[in-house]
# Entry
Amino acid sequence: MNVKQTTGLTLVFVGMMLTSIVYANPVSSHQDPVAPVILGVAGILFFALIGRFSARRLGQPSVLGELLMGVVLGNAGYFLGFDFIEILRIGPVLFDITERTLSGLPIVEATRQLLDDQSANEVISILKSTEGPVLLQVAHAVDIFSRYGVIFLLFLVGLETSLGELREVGGDSLRVAIIGVVAPFLLGFLILLWLMPQLTLNVDLFVAATLGATSIGISARVLSELNYMKSREARIIIGAAVFDDILGLIILAVVSGIILTGSIEVTNIITTILLSCLFLALAFGTGPYVLKFTISLLKQLNINEAKLFVSFLFVMLLAWLANAVGLATIIGAFAAGVILHDGYFKYWGDDNNKTIIKDLISPLEAILVPIFFVLMGIQVKLEMFMNLQVVSIAASLIVVAVIGKIVSGLGAISKSNRLAIGIGMLPRGEVGLIFAAIGKSLGVIDDALFAAIVLMVIITTLLAPPLLRWRLLSQSLATNSNTTL
# Structure
């Protein structure tokens, strides 16, 4: 082992020791209760930095390094018995446990409703310990910081996308989204009928619906790092992700309605479509007027203050509104970025060009987004691979998930890199995990299927960055070669 490797391992263990302090010492009466949160967030960011550095040294996208560092941290911490890591590994379920507990349900019962027996026993033991409240506080804070990060990421993506550009590729995006939802759904449904005929129709439908999800955060990060956000492929992928979110919600509403009522609730489907369209219409129709009015009230501020406050408030408003109508918050954040631009700040004259909105928001994104990707990696449970049934089901779902999204690139009938577009639609990310969690809460997905779906989500999320980078760089090299010739 050389000096560099030794130094790297030393840094990793130092970081793990620092992070472990969060749960090793409960908050005493004279300590600032926020101190564990500060250390917990800093510890996660420390590992994100190592992952980013390692990936760039190997010529890979930063997001891949951050995800893999999360995988290493999550599994090493779990097998070494770090309670903090165990709490982070259960992901969004933590919020559901807290919500049910606050509504009056005993914490033991709430945990057992949402987790398998082994995980539930481990989590209950941790939460009922003296350090439990501190761990819960830190885990919530880390998750919230990560969610802010992905909101800012999609906001910056929106800043680099104009409404005119989206209209230009609207047809391609819609076709890509439709194929990217329908193809995985049909393939998944058929593969489950073939491999697991004992499953009920409800289970087949829900698992198939989960395969159609797309998380644009991963691909957006890769496109941004490669300076491809202005490319036609990037605009098609981003536009398709917006349509995909709406189509995914419609399918989820249909499948959930069948499961809960035994029949298709047409009212729920129509409501979902109308609310989604209403949100987009209001955002793009009234957003500019809201911005102009707000900016007119802030003329006493300097240009940097005005841009920062207006940007932050506007993105949070649209993210909240998107969630209120059933869409993902990141769709609202993306819409905010598309609408907002530096041209709204004409009052400050020449000062307007000194600092652009992107430069003011980028530091927030640079700090918070790595936390999101490390946290996603932490939630990868490698022990799932020890179950042969889970592995076989997951392998089938992964093949279907990859093929279903790759063929979606065929929806771009104009001159585009269709393979890159299909790869860009691959990651399921947090959207796929949310779908799986809903299925588990409805009682249609058992532990084995849930584990298989989570593995599918993680593998497609990890595959996308290197494949997208390879495809785009190959295209760039081929273009440059043809130009030279």
Remarks:
- Residues 3-144 form one domain.
- The chain has two domains: 3-144, 161-363+383-472.
